[in-house]
Design goal:
The chain has about 375 residues and is an alpha/beta fold. It contains ten helices and 14 strands. Strands 2-10-9-8-5-3-4 form a seven-stranded mixed beta sheet, sandwiched between helices. Strands 11-12-14 form a three-stranded antiparallel beta sheet, with helices on one face. The structure holds pyridoxal-5'-phosphate.
């Protein structure tokens, strides 16, 4: 009887959604358990005070885990904030940029461009480099920073277009490829919403990192912020409390009621990342990406949409040469239990998001579908 029940469970689809996105099974299981009984309290995590010692422990440990995983120095503070990645587009300049000052920005995609537009509400913006001329299909190889730039803002992975900045842990000189940022004299700010914890990096090279959690770091509803406290406190304007990094640091991410459940899911995800090891995750991510890109490159029907050397390991964007076949491919994938591969509504085509928690098996199935589709059509 029990075996028969298991057999009736539908198989979980291979999940390539761009975010909210796949989470590790054990995270889902533990989150589910906590909805019934959180930390042995007999209460659901949804109905317990954020000031309870059980939840304060979760918040403290989650912040400590970010510090540990990124090997952050003591100048860096970790915050869990509200408002998603988008809210950081205004929170960053509000805390760092005076009206008469200039910040430099990489314009490498829709989100990067969104950050530029918001920063203009607070001060001057200098475009350090842009790939808008070729519809954001590459990452510029050189850039300029405005004199006295207050900071330089980059987007490490461009989720919609599928390009990623190649940031190696060991910096090489400016202009020689992989690490552009050595020798930079202003603070470096990074939107890592779609590739945080996907690879080993020198995270201390950034003075501010932010990432909406719903791709590699948990569920929607919480944003991880890492900030070098030395860069704060130089703006003249009054900052609303909810947007003030210094206040959030002082209140240890408990300025108001945090997104309790989302923080808990992040905490579980961080534990999972620690158990897996970032290096192992990085190796697996690269292998997954290689498998899919190889299948696309080997096919006469499909093609990758971005410059090969700038291809993202997280979001693989591709298209069919014959767009009339698009719906057929989506249906073909659906038959193979693959979901979430439609490209962003603004660019079309296909996008397979392959975040940390996506099992390699899912990529094998999609790569096989790419091959079989060619034989079928
Ligand atoms: C790189 C990047 N930045 C910012 C955002 C916006 O995040 P949110 O929807 O949480 O505001 C996204 C969303 O996908 C993103 O990919």
């Amino acid at each position: 009887m029990f075996a028969a029940l298991i057999a009736l469970q539908p198989m979980k689809p291979y999940n390539f959604y761009a975010g909210p996105a796949i989470l590790p099974e054990e995270v889902l299981q533990k989150a589910q358990d906590a909805i019934k009984n959180f930390a042995g309290t007999g209460l659901s995590i949804l109905e317990i005070s954020h000031r309870s010692k059980e939840f304060v422990k979760v918040m403290d440990e989650a912040r400590a885990l970010v510090k540990e995983l990124m090997q952050l120095n003591d100048e860096r503070e970790v915050l869990f904030m509200h408002g998603g990645g988008l809210s950081q587009f205004h929170t960053v300049p509000m805390n760092l940029l005076n009206e008469d000052e200039t910040a430099s920005y990489f314009d490498t995609g829709t989100w990067a461009h969104g950050a530029v537009e918001e920063a203009k509400l607070f001060g001057n913006v200098h475009i350090a480099c842009s790939s808008a001329d070729k519809n954001y299909t590459y990452v510029p190889k050189s850039f300029s920073v405005a004199p006295n730039s207050k900071y330089l803002h980059i987007t490490t992975n461009n989720t919609i277009y599928g390009t990623q900045l190649n940031l190696t842990p060991n910096p090489s000189p400016v202009g020689e490829g992989s690490n552009y940022f050595q020798g930079l004299t202003c603070p470096l700010v990074a939107d890592m919403s779609s590739d945080i914890f996907s690879r080993e990096l020198d995270y201390n090279q950034f003075d501010l990192i932010y990432a909406a959690a719903q791709k590699n770091a948990g569920a929607a509803g919480v944003t991880i912020v890492v900030v070098n406290k030395n860069i704060l406190g130089t703006v003249k304007r009054k900052i609303p409390r909810m947007l003030n990094y210094r206040l959030h640091i002082e209140k240890e991410s408990m300025l108001n009621t945090p997104s309790v459940f989302a923080v808990y899911v992040s905490y579980l995800t961080l534990q999972w990342i620690k158990k897996e090891g970032i290096k192992n995750i990085e190796v697996r991510n690269k292998r997954k990406a290689e498998k899919l890109y190889n299948a696309i490159d080997a096919s006469a029907l499909f093609e990758g949409t971005v410059n090969k050397e700038d291809r993202s390991v997280m979001n693989v964007c591709f298209r069919l040469n014959d767009t009339a076949l698009e719906e057929k491919f989506v249906a073909f994938c659906k038959e193979r239990n693959i979901v979430g591969i439609k490209g962003h509504r603004t660019v079309g085509g296909f996008r397979a998001s392959m975040y940390n928690a996506l099992p390699e098996e899912a990529v094998d199935v999609l790569a096989e579908a790419v091959k079989e589709f060619e034989q079928a059509f």
